Amino acid sequence: MAQERAIQRAAGRQAGGRWRRGALFVLAAVFVLGLSLSACGGGGAKESSGSPASGPATEGQGSGGEAAGPIEAKIGAVLILSGGAAAYGEAQRSGLEMAKDELNEKYAGKLKLDIVYEDTGGKKESAINAVNKLINEDRVVAIIGPTLSAEMFAAGPVANENETPIFGISNTAEGINDIGPYVFRNSLPESIAIPTAMKAAQNRYHFKTAALIYANNDDFSVSGYKTMKKTAEELGLEIVAEESFAVGDVDFSAQLTNIKKADPDVLLISALYKEGALVVKKAREMGLRARILGGNGFNNPKVFEIAGDAAEGLIVATPFSPEKNDPKVQAFVKAYEARYGKKPDQFAAQAYDGLTIIAESLLKAGKADRKLLRDQLAELKDFEGVSGKLSFDERRNPIGEAVVVVAKGGKYVPLESVSD
Amino acid sequence: MLFEQLLNGITVGSTYALIAVGYTLIFGVLGMINMAHGQIFIFAALTAIVTMSAFGWPLLPAFFVSVACAAVLGALLEAVAFRPLRKKDVPHLAPLISTIGFATILDDAMIKLFGADSRFVPGKLGGSFSVGGVDVRTVDLAILVAALGLMALLHLWIQKTPFGKAIRATSESPETAAILGIPTDRVILATVVLASGLGGVAGLLLGLSYGAVAPSMGVGLGFKGLAVLVLGGLGSLPGAMLGGLLLGVVEVLAVAYGSSTYRDAIAFLMIILVFLVRPQGLFGETPVQR
């Protein structure tokens, strides 16, 4: 459509001055021409290689059907690439780009992946718009993202209604999979990861009292907080203080003063790493002695940069640890460091795994078709990724393993390996 | 407990006051609000942090980097957002919008240049000491002292020196000042550069206090500074100081004895109440018709 209009305008401008009477005819001719052109060009004028959608084509692309060429799959990625939380989206894009290049090389001649990125800035409305655009204009075969659980709750139903697989790589809130049969995720829900960490820590340190602090305007953090509270009650801990803050806050002195007064054995923090690391730092500066256990958000090397020595002893459950003694993980960490000059975090790792899962499912499906892809994804079993082994249960919930790690000397090491 | 929380509040408040100085100075002279102030000081702080990390510099030269960067940005702001609009007969609020534009550009430039991540501040400003059983961090004390010191210095400078006189004359009436031979363009440029340079100090001090600086901090802290500007009385330096401390204490008490959800709500409710009693702000003068 955009092409047609541009051509019309250009034609109009040329025609306008000299022979006005002929203009109408020229316009009509150009319009017809434009129509036929756009039918061949297939929708948007993106930079991508494009996959001609023949006929009424509402069910993704059909071009992969011919046995000769590779399956050409255009995949949408809805990430936060600007604004306060852009760091997460940037890590995810790095992971996706690396996976795309590696997969295109590995499956050269069989599969050609292309990613269309959309930025949400962390806003739900933008996520919905991005998903609509990717489905209807770019005609992607699947969508990766969005970054935040809140965005997934907003945009997931849109993709589900349009029967387009949408694959969360960082949504750990409860209830993501209940959105519908086209919604997937490879990020372990916190309802699995947090209790694993809390039980491991409890077995070791025998806490009696606990305090909680969380970001109360973020779905992910609130969901983590609920899990922490429930688990603490199950473990028989007495909750002596409960405090909250907002995403973007930089001052936590009031809350931590209250917590310090309550003197808990363990402080449970549910937050994204930016605020979380600052809370940990401030807590130690104020002289809090309790052990600190954090949610999934702490699983980021940046925590050590921000919190420094204060991070020592922090306990976290994580799907991905760059220190994991596994050749696959180490190869990934090495390649990522060579390419981006820093260690991958869980966001990069799960993005990398997410695209790999989609690529392999596409190969099994045999062509770039949304429905066939969904069916293949739903049957995922024992996928060996850099963030551990992954299967989906009958409700497409990820079944994976969480590693309980503790911060020691500026990195996370498995809890069992530490003696104290 | 209450004593500790009051101390927390004063610490937070002095950072707000420090930010508000920059707004106050520019408003006092130009009668304009510089919406890019928050972004300028975060940009400067990030630049200083990056140079510190890259060259392994200690804190002191980093402060010079921060001030220099902020001053340059201030000059740029004056050149692109204030000056062109001063020359022509444009609506009163146009410079407000142009500074918002400048702020947006800085926001995105920061993400492109430094990434959206928080950057930790490599240096440290002392440890902490104990006053009556309460731990006080040296850096928090430094912020309070810096805020007070800068205000006193500015106050003296503006009231006592010839250049300060020129600033005051320009703020009174740029046209008259120009007729009387004051190079108003240069005075305004100097004021914006000065305000931004002070922002450079503020930015790095804040970074030291919070332990990290992120591009996204510019907006939030900028708005707090703006609230303090209005609360203290537009253009009043003592007002900015007191307003900052008051806002900080009210916020902290709201969190400590209420809930963090109402942090900003209670703070702004307090501002509204102040305005009901004193519409011109704490230290504001009754508006003069220009």
UniProtKB/TrEMBL annotation, chain A:
Member of which family? Answer: Belongs to the leucine-binding protein family.
Pfam families membership:
Peripla_BP_6
Q: Which domain of life is it from?
A: Bacteria
Sequence segments annotated as region (Disordered): 45-66
According to UniProt, the name of this protein is: ABC transporter substrate-binding protein
Keywords in alphabetical order: Amino-acid transport, Signal, Transport
Ranges for domain Leucine-binding protein:
73-406
Gene Ontology terms describing biological process = amino acid transport
Q: Which organism is it from?
A: Hydrogenibacillus schlegelii (Bacillus schlegelii)
UniProtKB/TrEMBL annotation, chain B:
Q: How does it sit in the membrane?
A: Multi-pass membrane protein
- A Pfam family for this UniProt protein? BPD_transp_2
PANTHER family according to UniProt = BRANCHED-CHAIN AMINO ACID TRANSPORT SYSTEM PERMEASE PROTEIN LIVH, HIGH-AFFINITY BRANCHED-CHAIN AMINO ACID TRANSPORT SYSTEM PERMEASE PROTEIN LIVH
Q: Which terms in the GO cellular component ontology are assigned?
A: plasma membrane
- Species this protein is from: Hydrogenibacillus schlegelii
GO MF terms held by the record: L-isoleucine transmembrane transporter activity; L-leucine transmembrane transporter activity; L-phenylalanine transmembrane transporter activity; L-valine transmembrane transporter activity
BP GO annotations: D-alanine transmembrane transport; L-alanine transport; L-isoleucine import across plasma membrane
Keywords attached to this entry: Amino-acid transport, Cell inner membrane, Cell membrane, Membrane, Transmembrane, Transmembrane helix, Transport
Q: Which domain of life is it from?
A: Bacteria
The record lists the membrane-crossing segments as: 6-33, 40-57, 63-81, 93-116, 136-158, 187-213, 225-253, 265-283
Give the UniProt subcellular location, in the record's own words. Answer: Cell membrane
Instruction: Give the protein's recorded name.
Output: ABC transporter permease
InterPro entries given in the database record: ABC_transp_permease (IPR001851), BCAA_transport_permease (IPR052157)
What does the sequence similarity comment in the record state about its family? Belongs to the binding-protein-dependent transport system permease family. LivHM subfamily.
